[in-house]
Amino acid sequence: MPGKLGLYLRYSVRSLRRGGQRTLLGIFCIAVGVMAVVALRLAGDMISATLTTNIREANGGDVSVVSTALPLAQSDLTHVQALQDSGTIQQYLPIGVERGTLRHATGRTYTSTINVLDEPARYPLVGNAGFVAPPDGTFAGAVSGNGVVLTQFLASSLGAGIGSTVHVDLVGGAGADLRVGAILAPNRSLAVGSTAAYISGATFRSMSTQPESYGVVVMTTASAAQASTAAKQLQSAFPTATVQTVQQALNANVQAASQVTQYLEIIGLLALAIGGVGIVNTLQVMLSRRRLEIAMLKATGYRRTDLYAMFGLEVGMLGLAGGLLGTGAGVGMSLVVKLLIEQVINQPLVFEIGAGALVTGVVVGVATSLIFGLLPIVRAAGVRPQEVLRDTAEGPRIASRAQVIGLYALVAALFIGLSASILGDFFLALQVVLYSLIGLLILAGIFSLVLLVIGYLPVPERFSPGYVIAVAAAVAVSAAITIALRGVGVALLVATASGFIVVLLPRSQRTVVKLALRSIGRARARTAGTLVALFAGVFTIGLILVVGQDISSEISDALSNLASYNVFVIASSQQSSAAVSATQNLNGVEGRRVTQDLTTRPISVNGASFAQTVGPAPTQGREGGQREAALFELTGVEGYNLGNNELPGAPLAPVRERGGAINSGRELQPSDAGTNNVMVVDQLRNAPLNMRVGDQVVVENTATNQSVTLNVVGFYSLATRSSSGSVSINFFFQPILTDRGVVAQLGSAQALSIVALKLNPDHKDAALRSIETAVPGATVLDLADLGALVQQVLGNLVDLLIGIASLALFAGVVIIANTVALAMLERRREIGILKSTGYTSRSVLAQVLLENGVVGGIGAVAGMAMVSAATALLGGLALKTSLAVSTPTVLVIIAGVILLTMIVAGLVAWGPSRVRPLEVLRYE
Amino acid sequence: MGAPETPALEARQVTRALPLGSTVVQILRGISFTVERGEFVALMGPSGSGKSTLLGVIAGLDRPSTGRVLVDGIDITTMPESRLAGVRNAKIGMVFQAYNLIPTLSAQENVEVPLYAGQHPGSPAVRARQMLELVGLGERARHRPNQLSGGEQQRVAIARALATDPAIVIADEPTGNLDAQNGANILTLMSALRERTGTTFLVATHDQHVANRAERTLHIADGLLVDGAVAAEPPPPPAEEPAPVPPPA
């Protein structure tokens, strides 16, 4: 047995070496799939580790109360104190949550959450400080004496280090230069958000006159049961807050992490499946070249099982090489994916490379090769030696057809098994593989039909009435398609119009066209498989590009149409007059509006308690989203000088027809000055509040508990679409729009003055400098920065998705290379015959290029047609907007794919097309 | 190996029909003959006469439509594929016109190939070495096929065919790809091997020179044996005392 194994090993290694380019392509196919699985799994693991590691520390304690929309007042803490007095909780720590802008000397600016620690010596309640630098530092030391602690992400974004000075402007407060006292490790950042900073209560009080309020309260308990009891009592006391125990936090994070990981693994699996198709093709080529060898082995007494073992060993080695390469590349790729995900979610991920993922990569490589290698191996081992040795065609056998069907079923079953072991969910794996299989089979069937038709297209010597009518009809159909799908239609127009051109070509070139078309009609199943891979690549990349481009331009349009204001100056009540006067006589001001904004808490709606109406905070789900939205939409008033005809300009929401007409009311008018009439956002017409015109809402100042009763006179829309199709976003700092008199009733001392400016871009920089000098404590928000940030995040997301989708296109290209190689191998004799009758290498190559160009064109046109259909559906149903597919983008993608397939085919066919006819006709 | 009185090969009323488009072509029409142990038989016939089809059927690479084929007394006609492979390995050695060596394996490894397929006593490496020395290629054992001449490759193929000590070696145009000198050398080698080892040879050929080396010649035409036992010139006497052929070890 060792001798036999040795022979098999030597044979396998040498055969792989002899395979040369083909072996490399096979390894690449596997490596691409494995790389996708490993990279995405590692990324999933990193997300999982980030979400589930140190969950108690991330929760801040055994129970956390988060109420950032409606911060808790000092008086609210009596509930928490009572719990401590009763022994339900051990310790508690309130944390203030503010907003502010941080600016480093380098000019880099970031808007961030600022956590205020009244008792920094007790923070954090559980675990250690978790500083990257200084490693053994404490919060008490770091935030003392105008110190600030930054998360690592924020520090690197600002370019700040320990000891750096950062200028911090608190929203509604003053500015101050703070010294960076410590930098928080990334895994600790998660609890507070990656862009958080910490200051002491003393620093906060030196910067702001606002009374302190608490967005977060964390506490410890002696047991999980006590945590649960405390959570229930706290939720009852603070119905609008989110109360979470460690167990609830863990459950939520585990679920979120497993969903993300599973999603990424499914994408990896699809790449693996496409790589598997590539392996089938590659092995088919490699083993087809060895039919004579296989026949000889069988002639000397080798059984099928012997051949399965020999080729299985070879394929296993191919898989091992691909698995190792793919795993290595996957680790590298995971870093790229990690960076892209971090940029998209704006959250650092814990870098972690688990041995499990690496071993999985290698095992998946070997298993995938063996599973997909089954088809070519069994087919190769089934060759009838007599037919190969005598070079006669093998006829179809019923048994072999049944065997092929059985083999496909076996491969599908094995791949389901592999997928189940990767996803850890058999039924999900079953669904993913079966749905993909059904989809791929339908696609392959459609492509087979198209190929059949193309294979029979006439290439006449001269025009005939029938031919002219047929081509003209095809051109007319293409023209009709052009009306609906311009890019795809133009490509089809070019293709159909070439029906006229081909007749005018010289005879030799016409024959090349004819041979290319007839060749497309052969080996349809294989070509259809290639087309499916190409289609998948083109569709995914095309869709991401088109949707990304559309969303990007929608955002640009929306920002440029944004309520006519491009700069907002936010100042506290003390700085209000300075901000107003500093913006009065600026150069380049084309529009200006001053409002007073105040954070409020909803008390009741039509006499019913708000908390009872919306109910307690659920842990997750749609209901929770609606509840949060209702809360958010009533947590602030924006006061306008209506008497001076300064109106919000909020467009009235359309009348709701569903379930009976719901009136939108009216817009605010100058006559509303001095009244408590308000406009609220149209989402409040939905559950759970189901508000209507005429409803009364009582809100109170969160700082002073001063309350007013507001009368709803109208509902406005946050986004409107003009008749030209462009989107306008209506941007307000607080959701309840009213007269400034209402703000005065609630208490102007806590109100912020917001000066909205429409600045001419040519004067903007000078104006911004002038404002910052005149009102140094004010926060200035430039929408251009916001737009650039959104575009950057969107660009990163598109890059990430295209990176993943490119794997599919790469596998498609490898499959094309293999298909061409296989076709050239099968047609060696045919090429010899053509050459012996006067054809040149160039005409043979031209035939191959044309054939593959047509194949690439079919895949690209079909892919982009599907992109157009998908974007229409996506725009109409999901995004409620009309997404346009740009014609140049479609044409560039189609032309690019055609060019790519021709280049790949040309590279592969270059050598075989130069075969010497005598060589193949005499010696093969 | 079977009993001494059992013929090495026996074909009984073998027919073979193959579909050709919508029609069925009768390639072999009922062929019967026997090859005794130690015989050197030539099978001659024009192109399309059914020569190669007959060789395929009796070598167990193809099945007859009707009739029976017995190799060393074993009826291979209806044998399942896995057992047939065993018979091919143990009882039949094949030599092809195009040598059909595995290009990635050395001469030594090519000869070892059949020895690893079935159960054979002794070391395959030692046996392969002996076979290569028997055909005069002991010094070329480590060479790959592309480093050998056509004649040398065919000698490796013969060594491979003899490696399992088969009941019969079936050669299909073994000199077809060789020049006259190399062709003659191969025939001389086969004759000598037959003398030394007592191996039975059935050689299909177009070449009358090849047939002249055989003890008898079977002529096939249009799927039928024209005359079953045409006497040929007696084989030339061995040039020297044949060297002892090593046993299958």
Could you please describe the fold and organization of this structure?
The complex is a heterodimer of chains A (924) and B (249). Chain A contains 30 helices and 22 strands. Helix content of chain A is 59%, strand content 15%. In chain A, a hairpin with a 2-residue loop joins strand 12 (589-605) and strand 13. Chain B is an alpha/beta fold. Chain B is built from 7 helices and 11 strands. Chain B is globular. The model of chain B is unreliable at 228-249 (pLDDT under 50). Chain A binds chain B through residues 3-4, 7, 10-11, 14-15, 17-18, 292-293, 295-306, 384-386, 389-390, 395, 923, and chain B through 19, 52, 56, 59, 61-62, 81-82, 85-90, 93-94, 96, 98, 100-105, 109, 112-114, 116-118, 123-125, 160, 164, 172.
Poorly predicted runs of 5 or more residues of chain B:
228-249
Low-confidence regions of chain A: 619-623
Oligomer state equals heterodimer
Cα distance spanning the termini of chain A: 35 Å
Q: Please indicate the percent range of residues of chain B in DSSP E strands (runs of 2 or more).
A: 25-35%
Please report which band the strand proportion of chain A falls in: under 5%, 5-15%, 15-25%, 25-35%, 35-45% or over 45%.
5-15%
Cα-atom radius of gyration of chain B: 17 Å
Number of strands of chain B: 11
